[in-house]
Amino acid sequence: MPRISVLLPCRNCAATVEAALLSLTRQSVDMEILAIDDASQDGSVDRMLSLGLRNLRILPLDRHEGITRALQIGLQEASGEFIARMDADDISHPDRFSCQLAAIEAVNAHLCFCYYRDKNENTGRVVEWKNPDGELLSWRGLFDNVFGPHSGAIFRKKEIIELGGYATQFARAQDYDLWDRCLAAGYQFAYAPKILLERTTGASSITASDSQAQADFAALVSQRALGRAFPGISKEKLIALRWLMTGKGEKPTDLATVLEWSIEAASSFLSVKAQTVRPSLLWHDVTLQISKRLKKLTPSEVALARRTMISAACKSLRPRTMALACIAATRLQFV
Q1: Taking the model in full, what pTM does it have?
Q2: Whether the predicted pLDDT of 65 surpasses 80
Q3: Residues near 197 by Cβ (< 8 Å), separated by ≥ 6?
Q4: Beta pairing, strands 189-201 & 91-92
Q5: What percent of the residues of the chain are helix, what percent strand, and what percent coil, each to the nearest 5?
Q6: pLDDT per residue as tens digits for the range 187-230
Q7: N or C: which end of the chain has fewer CB within 10 A?
Q8: How many Cβ atoms sit within 10 Å of the Cβ of residue 297?
Q9: Residue 189 pairs with which residues in a beta bridge?
Q10: CATH number of 4-210
């Protein structure tokens, strides 16, 4: 049985898949490669077969099923203890899998992400991603997919199967859905602290080509996560809080009320996570995000926000809520 099964979904990727597969042959870990071909029409399968790779299994789909369904089929066919993800236009560094397995075993984690370098093929801009969230992951993950690159993930197959694998109702943001369910199940996340993956982003990428659907499905995951963190919260509050923390979605009309909600939500979150999240870090993050949103508001709206924060500090009997409100009010002086 191979140590790792690599899930590599393919859809009209003849131009890039050879380089992707050859980068996998340089790994030092025993593995199988499952290329799930989603009814390609550009000769992708022939290109893969021409490489003659012994550990490559091609799973051709009779019709276009989409990436989530393709991944679930691959997951069910995989025989490795660990599942690694990679896209057909990515390049893995030779030590990627060995570094990620070491990171998992060091803390007995359930899944691991690596840092990556992303090149935009339209602009030529290169961006390096490194895990910026640390202990705030459980907070920021309520609002957006900040966990790590899907194609740079490795996870334990058994535990992911126990969660049901990929949820096929999520045609987009299937990774955010899976990571959120992992977080809810108490799974531990690890990060290999070096760049181990080269990615390319362009007009043909899923995120770029269907950005609205991606955003809509991500919003559904965020609403579920927020509902779990704050039982009984209304959908109106969920949408408003997500806008305040990320700038995504519609701007709420009642700004003062939303600001009060955000302070109460952060205080409530800290009451549960005080052992794993330092209050000072969370306070800084919340007030920083509030400041970012308010920079786009009118002077009168900013003044209203300051009065709201001061009022919240005066009314609260909870020290954390009072402190958050005071810090937010102070920050707003400089917006």
Answers
A1: 0.90
A2: yes
A3: 86, 90, 91, 92, 93, 96, 114, 115, 116, 117, 149, 151, 152
A4: antiparallel
A5: 50, 15, 35
A6: 999 999 999 999 998 755 555 557 889 999 999 999 999 999 99
A7: N
A8: 15
A9: 111
A10: 3.90.550.10
